[in-house]
């Protein structure tokens, strides 16, 4: 097609995701997205959708990318639940330490922005948090935690995981973040010993 600029959809979506991740939904304009993706406004709307639709695509992309990594980390939960939870946190800590990525977490940032998000985007942000709790609950149940303990610790681990992203954005260093993880692993270990 002569005259039409071709672009790579994955590259454009990654650029938009990084833009939203870096400054948040409310502080990202369509002009910001245009600069980030290299697409003009009409191309963004025709190819990627309006701001809400694009944000949903980016949130889904982010959740899938890191969700797969979290699932892999938790895959040993049946035999080694503590190692699985530590590996789960390692996914977050590695993402935080990656200099190519913005600080924090797009899901955590979305959750904090729920009051200014549209209903559909707010619902998707809550859903992403729910997926994290569900995968943790299933892993802890596989690791022979009681239903109640699995539920309680899934809620706790998910909350700590989101707080790591917030703390990193506020300037907490690797040692501080590891100390936060250590407290949670110790609590899980204590609960594990008590069960036996």
UniProtKB/TrEMBL annotation:
Location of the HTH tetR-type domain: 6-66
Top-level lineage group: Bacteria
Signal peptide residues on this chain, from the entry's feature table: none
Annotation: DNA-binding region: 29-48
One Pfam family here: TetR_N
Keywords associated with the record: DNA-binding, Transcription, Transcription regulation
PANTHER family tied to this protein: HTH-TYPE TRANSCRIPTIONAL REGULATOR YJDC, TRANSCRIPTIONAL REGULATORY PROTEIN
Protein name: TetR/AcrR family transcriptional regulator
Species whose genome carries this gene: Streptomyces niphimycinicus
């Amino acid at each position: 097609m002569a005259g039409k600029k071709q672009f790579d959809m994955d590259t454009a979506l990654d650029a938009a995701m990084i833009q939203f991740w870096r400054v948040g939904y409310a502080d990202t304009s369509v002009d910001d997205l245009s600069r980030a993706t290299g697409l003009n406004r009409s191309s963004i709307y025709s190819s990627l959708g309006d701001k809400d639709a694009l944000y949903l695509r980016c949130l889904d992309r982010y959740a899938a990318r890191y969700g797969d990594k979290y699932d892999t980390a938790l895959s040993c939960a049946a035999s080694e639940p503590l190692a699985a939870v530590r590996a789960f946190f390692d996914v977050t800590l590695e993402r935080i330490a990656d200099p190519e990525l913005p600080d924090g977490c797009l899901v955590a940032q979305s959750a904090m922005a729920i009051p200014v998000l549209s209903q559909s985007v707010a619902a998707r942000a809550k859903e992403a948090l729910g997926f994290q709790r569900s995968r943790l609950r299933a892993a802890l149940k596989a690791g022979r935690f009681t239903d109640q303990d699995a539920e309680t610790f899934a809620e706790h681990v998910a909350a700590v995981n989101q707080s790591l992203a917030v703390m990193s954005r506020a300037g907490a260093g690797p040692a501080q973040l590891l100390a936060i993880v250590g407290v949670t692993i110790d609590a899980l270990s204590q609960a594990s010993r008590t069960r036996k």
